[in-house]
Structure formats: structure tokens, C-alpha cells
Task: structure prediction
Amino acid sequence: MHQHPRTAVIGLGAMGLPMATHLAQHLPVTAYDISESRRTHLTAVGGTPAPTPADAARDADVVLLAVRDHPQVETALFGKHGAAETLRPGTTVVLTSTVGPEAARATATRLAERDVLTVDAPVSGGPARAANGDLLIVVGADDKALEQARPVLDLLASTLTVVGKAPGDGQSLKAINQLLAGIHIAAAAEAVALARALGLDPATVVETLRHGAAGSFMFADRGPRMVETYENDTAPEVRSRLDIFVKDMGIVTGIAKDAHVPVPLASAAQQLYLLGEAAGLAAQDDSSVVTVLSPKNGSPEGEIR
Result:
């Protein structure tokens, strides 16, 4: 594989667009998204838009899938005008979506029937880090598939860890990442909600505690957005949709059930995201889950404002 593999990106959402934008500075990138405006945006940064996944993948050496969930993976690859129609034998598909180990293995099996390689490479870090090539990527792939995808992965990752030789292995580690992240956001929401009810200034609470033993990346990142939820008339900018954690905590608790491992905290966090979804917050930033515990228009007892 040459050092500048022709790369297709399918899915130009919160993570796909910054990844494609970053790659287009170094490689030939062709991309598909259901949204014409996102395809047009990619043109402005040097990429080539394609009208279907099949067209995007036609001449690609590496196809990067950056869609939301397993049904979208199925559609992008095997649906009408899906990438599988044009994938050449020996091409490598890089699965960056969080879909769970079973789905990754099933996808890899179907692609292998076409002599297409699969790299299971779920990504973590958020849109800003994606745009800077500063992602954490955990990989499950055999040596040949990884070698093919390496030039693309190295551009996207500041930390790339190969956790196993097979698709599904990366998904397993990503699920553990999401277990921790999902619990940490839920814990931050409880802390901010309680601070509000006690009449403390949530901004002061977040700023004070984020630097101490109780801090976490998620508390420092989502805490200020939770504060912003209460201080502004508009909802915070959507950086990670709440329904992503509905999906991901479902994957976590499903895997844990199959492994007979109790995950009481992950299960409780999952219920909080489901409550948020039921309250109409699915498409809002995941930090908005705090309003399930402490409604925005409520005036908690003791609130000093």
C-alpha cells in the first residue's frame, strides 16, 4: 500500500466531517453523506463529493465508515447503491462507528466473502480532536488489514492501540470506554443538579472541583455545558447527541449481560439517557441530560438567584 491511499469517507456527521477534512489535507478523499450541504462543505476543503456510497468507494484503497449505528453501516455497505457494489478485492474497510463486537464481526464476515478486509477501529475524542488528528483509536484487525489502513489511521490518531487481531476486539474496548464516559456524564449531571438545589452556583462548583480528586474529563468537559444550559435561553451547541449514549449504553449493558458481569452503575446511567430521550432530548447535546434531574424552568428549593 502506498503512503497516500485513495480514501473514501462515508458519513460526514459530527465525527466524519472533521475526519474527512483532516484527511483531505494529506490524501485524495472522496466522500458521501446523505446531506448535500455536508458534501459541498467537503469540496471547499479539497475533497471530492460522491452521489452514493458506491460512487465514493469505486476507486478507493481504504473506505472509512463514520456513520452512527449498525443499521447505517448495513445501509452504507450493503444497501441500494451501497459501497459493497464497487469495493474491489483487497480493499480495506475501516469501521470507526461504535456498533458492538457482534455487529463488527458480522460486517467483517460479509465483507470477507468479497475478499474485502476489515479494520475494527472505533474512535474516541470528539469533533475538535478529530479535526486535528488527535483521536484515540482502538483497533481489532489482522496484520494485513492494519498495514493497508495504517496511513489513514496514523493521520487521525494521536494514540492508536491495537487490542486484538480480529474485528470485534476494538469494539470491546470501545464499549468499556463508553461505560466509563456514560457513567461520568451521569455523575456530572447529578453533581450539578444537587449543587443547584443546594443554592450553590453551579459554575463555581464545576470550576472548583474539576481540578481535584473528584474531577474527570467528562466533568470538566460537560460540566460547563450543563451550567450553560441553565444560564442561556438557547440549548448548548450539539457536540455529542444524547441518543448516541442511549445507543452506546445499550451496547454496554447488552455485552455485560452476555458476559454475566453486573454493571449497576452503567445500567443506572443507561436509564438516565433513556429518560432524557423520552423527555425529547434525543437530538440535543448529551449534557442536557442534567435537566432530567433538575428541570431548567424549575426553581429548586434554596436556589439563591
Q: What stands out?
A: The first strand starts at residue 7 and ends at 10. The domain at 172-293 is CATH 1.10.1040.10 (N-(1-d-carboxylethyl)-l-norvaline Dehydrogenase; domain 2). The beta strands are 7-10, 29-32, 48-49, 62-65, 92-95, 117-120, 123-124, 135-140, 157-164. The chain has two domains: 7-167, 172-293.
